[in-house]
Target: Endonuclease III
Amino acid sequence: MGTPLESRAEQAEEVITRLEEAYPDSTISLRYSNRLELLIAVMLSAQCTDERVNKETKHLFEKYDGPEAYAAVSQEELAEDLNSITYYNNKAKYIRSACTTIIEEHDGEVPDTMDELTELSGVGRKTANVVLQHAHDVVEGIVVDTHVQRLSRRLGLTNEEYPEPIEQDLMGIVPEGYWQQFTHLCIDHGRATCTARNPDCADCVLADICPSAKGDSEIDLASGESW
Model:
């Protein structure tokens, strides 16, 4: 198996260095033009690809202009507009409720604190972190999506299984100036090489420092199962 560096902090910095070289233009892939659009796009992206979300929001954002429009539309109509998105009924409900709260409690503006964002329906810490980082330029955590979760375990950066404890581990070893970019780098590498089911370890820039590398390791540390 690959040999990770001596400390997790050193391992994290080496991972960042290599992935920055491999993906120099890494950034958020969701398309949006304002804070509300970003919030809704991230809510829709849960267990759904960004590519699919971008395809659907192109039409959605043309139809709905501002939180009032989402709050006023019926559950049935909004759900129909989202019917190619996973869990579209629940997401329609969350969007309508969140927009109602934004109108009633935040003067129609997407809030800019973690506590206020996570009080909105359908908004957890991951979604709130994305909105804070990209809509408000506030970086107070690391977005842990499925790619970050998988790569951070495979690379030996954490033994935790769930997003919030993984985030806490990563915040202790990833330099603060890279908290935002770390997520984008992991997403790009997770899509291109370190996929969930069949990672291309033979062509991976991290293979020699990855304790999960196929061919060397018998275990995928992301799942705890044998390759």
Remarks:
- Residues 36 and 66 are 7 Å apart (CA to CA).
- The beta strands are 219-220, 225-226.
- The chain has two domains: 8-26+143-226, 35-135.
